[in-house]
Every structure is written in structure tokens, then in C-alpha cells.
Automatic annotation (TrEMBL):
It holds the Pfam family Ammonium_transp. Belongs to the ammonia transporter channel (TC 1.A.11.2) family. It is found in: Cell membrane; Membrane. This is Ammonium transporter.
Amino acid sequence: MVGLQSVPGLVILYGSMVKKKWAVNSAFMALYAFAAVLICWVLWAHQLSFGDDMLVILGMPKLSSVTQAYLIEQQDDKTIPKADYVFYQFVFAAITVILLGGSLLGRMNFYAWMIFVPLWLTFSYTVGAYTIWDKGFLAHRIIDFSGGYVIHMSSGVAGFTAAYWVGPRHQNDRDHFAPNNIIHMLAGAGFLWMGWSGFNGGSPLAANQITSLAVLNTHICTATSLLVWMFFDLIFHSKSSVIGAVQGMMTGLVCITPAAGVVDSWAAMLMGVLAGSVPWYTMMVLHKKSTFFQRVDDTLGVFHTHAVAGLLGGLLSGILAKPNLIHMFYTSKYSKQGPGLLYSIINRSEAVHIRGGFTQMGYQLAGAAFIAAWNVVMTSLICIFVSRIVDLKMHEDDLEVGDDAIHGEEAYALWGDGQRHPRSITPKIPSLFRRI
């Protein structure tokens, strides 16, 4: 189910949500990333994320991780084979890279993207996964049920950072970037929404009470967020936007991810209200007023839908997580996740609970700071390195043409049997005379 979110989900969503001339390139960026991440994940990235101790932020790769003996043995204390766990964690890693790519659509050199994907997976994603989900210094402290920090904050912050280094789209694309097929966009969004049942419901690696609660909470939060975003559009813009509804759906899915199985359903609905309003404000109001946000061309607003919503979900997890649900999910003897701040205040007669709630919020903030800082630094270093090999951004002439110039293909035949209108040839004028 999580794999279907990327292929075909995000492939369809990206190919439909962009201008027609970028449909092929945008879909292909997602398809390539899915394939490249799988090979890298099996060969070394899974062990870096979930292997034996090497550093406090990284595991140790082993060649034995691709052998039959390793892949069919039981996954730790879970009743599933290692191979299932390796593939499940792969689809998480793949969707993270593809989400990041949403910030770079419409101008990144495809060859630069081919180099960027394995480097970012190796040096950025694996560190977040090991640090928070496996044996890192935050692993048994942070509440991150299914990737609010590891996946969504990482992709949002890294995407925004990479967008800064790659540079903006062609000015005409920034000014006019309407989706080429809204119906297909909704189909891609549907794969995301329904596939999220596996995204959050699969995290317990079992069919149990936490699983069923996580699935229900996921859909409650998402529906609430979509409706809240839609009502804000109606109130302030007089029209309900389909694109806005998809953005609200996305922020709801992201926000509930770190808390899906450890909060009550009323809390999931409250999270949906905040997921539909806070990112709406940062995207629709703050982004337009801020010089800082305007300088960076984040094509699909990934920073708002993933970094902001992921941070919001992580902090709300630290407030609303219910003690008995935490104990049901975090069963390791090393787990020290505390109660949500709300419940520590409710149980204020017990001093340890009060301290536990504030301590947990401290860890939630520390985890967010670490993920943000690591992704800014590492993504910047990777972009600088790639730029020494190949241009990060397409040539200006290619930006004007789009898919046909890059891949020799176009998304839609305009007439005849797959034929296309001949491209008009415009004489190249030196930039000095063009400015004159």
C-alpha cells in the first residue's frame, strides 16, 4: 500500500499537478527515484538505517544483508521475515525522496537528480531513520509513530534547501503554473490517501488494536484537515479550490503520521483542525508576505505541506499522546517515551508524570531541531558536490521547451496518431541584446 503511494500515486500526482510541458519530466523524476532507492536500500542504506551500531547517528552496512540467510530470518521480536521489513522500510525511504522532489519540479537537471537521489538517501535519510527509529541517541525518547520527523520534516526541509541551491523556475512558469489535468491529480491524491492506511497502519508490524486505531485516526484527521482547508479557501477567496483540498488532505495525512496509533480519535480530529489551518496560513498568507519564502521556489509547497505539518504533528504528539497507548506501541525494554503533556497535567498529583510530560516535549523539540539542522547542512553539501559534476539547473532554453527538450517526449499528442506540432525555432539572441 505504501509502495502504491509512490508508484503510481505520486507519479500520477506530479505528472498532473504541473504545467503540461513538465508532465513527463515530473512523473519520471518520481519513477526514477523509486527504482534507484530500492537498489541503494538493499545494498547498503537499510543497514545504515537499521544495522548494528557504528555511530550514534548511523548503523554499520554488511554485505550479508542481501543473502537468503539474512532475509528470511525473523525480524527481531516481530513475527515477520527480515525481507518484509526491508521492503517496508524501503517504500518509506522511497516516498521521502520523491516528496522532496516536489520542491524541484520544473527546472532541476535530470542528470543532477540521478546523482542527488542516492547521495541524499545515503547521507541524510539514513541518519534520521537510525537516530529516531533504531538505535540512535533519540531512538527511545521521541514519539514518532510513522515518520512525522524521519519522513516529512526531512523531505520538507531538504526539499526547500535543495530548491534554494537549484534556483527558481523560468519566470513564466512561476507566474503561471496551472495543473494540466486536475482529474488525474485527484487520482494520484486518492492513491496517497488510501495508501496511508498502510503507511500508518503498518507501523506496528502486526494486526492489533494499535493498528486499527492508527488507520481510523489517519482518515479522521485527513478528512477534517481537508474540510478546514476548504472552508478557509471559501472564507478568504470565495471559492473552494480542488488544489487547496488536496493540499489540506496532504497536511492532514502528514500531521497525524507521528501520532496515529498513540492518540485518541478526538485528538486526531483536533489535529486535523490544526493541520488544515496552520499550514494554510503559512502557505497562503505568510509565504506571500515573506521575502525569505519568496526567494526560494518551492514548486509544490513541500515545505508547508510536509515540514510545517510534520513539525506540527510531532509537537502535538508530545502533547496529546496517551500513556496507555504509548506503552502498547513502544514495547521495547529500552523505550522511555513519556506521557503527552496534556496527560501529565491531568495527572498532576503525580510529580513524575508532570516532569515526564515536559521532558517529552523537550525531546520532541530536540528531535525536530536535529532533523532540520542535519537536512539543511547535508542537503547543501550534496547540492554543492553535485554542482561540481553537472549543472543543478537545466539550461535556459530547455526551461522554455520542457519535456521535449529533456526527454524527447511529450505527455499528450496534440493531433494525429501520436504526432506533435513542430517546435517553433526562435533565433538565439545574445542576452545583452535581449535585455535591450
